[in-house]
């Protein structure tokens, strides 16, 4: 009897061990997948936080930039950065400086999350193809390949969140005196969809996509290439143990933002003006002597470029550039550094530079 109990116990132990081994084998593939999913989520969270923090920090300048881009040249209200900010403060108060920022963050948080994550994935794919083509497994991304990865990331992020950007522009431009009052993001989305049709939510999409290629592409390419150069050459001892300080990384981000926005800015002006087409209450550009209340109508991107230059001159393509420059320098710098810092806090080993 005792021997039968022993045999039964041994059989039970053997069965348990076999089941444990089978469970281990079955879960070996689950852990990496779970880890990969956590890494993706953390990367998206870091990108979202980076976008929200950086955009809120420069919200007043962002609003002034848009107001300068679309204001009637025959009725100037905003004449420069300092005067423009003072005018907003005097007429709309402190809240006026941040009007549209909630909508902006609702757009920029997912946009930034998708943008940073898309850049990482595009970089991996492009690097793999480059290594296969060259036959060099140790090959690294060069500035041109980084530009391509950044362009891909910008197109994906812009397209995914464009309707939010469109209504954000209208919410930012409207004032208390505007006959049309959008009450918020979803009210603006539903109103535009109902009154102007679904295609209206993508007005200005083409110049946006064309503009995002050099803008986001150059941001990533300049930022990473400049960081690599500083780490490798280490001028003035800026790199310590192959790491750059937060201040140095902020400077790299500022340089990247300045280059990118200068190249792409005219397309941003055209995009914003095309977004206002169909909205009769917009404080947009008018034709003639300024007595007409009808804003300029654009049939497309080329038409918008042509009419803007014909009615207002080439300089109109750079309206709002000064507050935008003041805004872009800290905004891009804060976004890049916040992204990397948050990923460090969340314990994600991979950064954009890796």
Automatic annotation (TrEMBL):
UniProt keyword Transmembrane helix present: yes
GO biological process: transmembrane transport
Protein name: Mitochondrial adenine nucleotide transporter ADNT1
Keywords: Membrane, Mitochondrion, Mitochondrion inner membrane, Repeat, Transmembrane, Transmembrane helix, Transport
Domain of life: Eukaryota
Solcar repeat spans: 38-125, 141-229, 244-345
GO cellular component assignments: mitochondrial inner membrane
Gene3D superfamilies tied to this protein: Mitochondrial carrier domain
Localization: Mitochondrion inner membrane
Predominant localisation class: mitochondrion
Family: Belongs to the mitochondrial carrier (TC 2.A.29) family.
Keyword Mitochondrion: yes
Listed Pfam families: Mito_carr
Membrane topology: Multi-pass membrane protein
């Amino acid at each position: 009897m005792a021997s039968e109990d022993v045999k039964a116990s041994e059989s039970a132990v053997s069965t348990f061990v076999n089941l444990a081994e089978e469970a281990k084998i079955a879960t070996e593939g689950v852990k990496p997948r779970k880890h990969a999913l956590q890494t993706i989520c953390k990367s998206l969270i870091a990108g979202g936080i980076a976008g929200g923090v950086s955009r809120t920090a420069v919200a007043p300048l962002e609003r002034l930039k848009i107001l300068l881009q679309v204001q009637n040249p025959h009725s100037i209200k905003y004449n420069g950065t300092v005067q423009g900010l003072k005018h907003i403060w005097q007429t709309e108060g402190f809240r006026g400086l941040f009007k549209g920022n909630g909508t902006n963050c609702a757009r920029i948080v997912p946009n930034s999350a998708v943008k940073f994550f898309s850049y990482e994935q595009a970089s991996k794919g492009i690097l793999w193809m480059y290594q296969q083509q060259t036959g060099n497994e140790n090959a690294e991304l060069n500035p041109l390949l980084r530009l391509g990865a950044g362009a891909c990331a910008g197109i994906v992020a812009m397209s995914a969140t464009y309707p939010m950007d469109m209504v954000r522009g209208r919410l930012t431009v409207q004032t208390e005196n505007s006959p049309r009052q959008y009450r918020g993001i979803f009210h603006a989305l539903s109103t535009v969809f109902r009154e102007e049709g679904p295609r209206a939510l993508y007005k200005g999409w083409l110049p946006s996509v064309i503009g995002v290629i050099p803008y986001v592409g150059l941001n990533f390419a300049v930022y990473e290439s400049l960081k690599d150069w500083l780490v490798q050459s280490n001028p003035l001892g800026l790199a310590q143990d192959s790491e750059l300080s937060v201040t140095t990384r902020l400077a790299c981000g500022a340089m990247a933002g300045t280059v990118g926005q200068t190249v792409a800015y005219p397309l941003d002006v055209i995009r914003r003006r095309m977004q206002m087409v169909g909205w009769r209450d917009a404080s947009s550009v008018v034709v003639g002597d300024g007595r007409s209340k009808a804003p300029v109508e654009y049939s497309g991107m080329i038409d918008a470029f042509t009419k803007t230059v014909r009615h207002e001159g080439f300089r109109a393509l750079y309206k709002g550039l000064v507050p935008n420059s003041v805004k872009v320098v800290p905004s891009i710098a804060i976004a890049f550094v916040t992204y990397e810092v948050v990923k460090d806090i969340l314990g994600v080993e991979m950064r954009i530079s890796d």
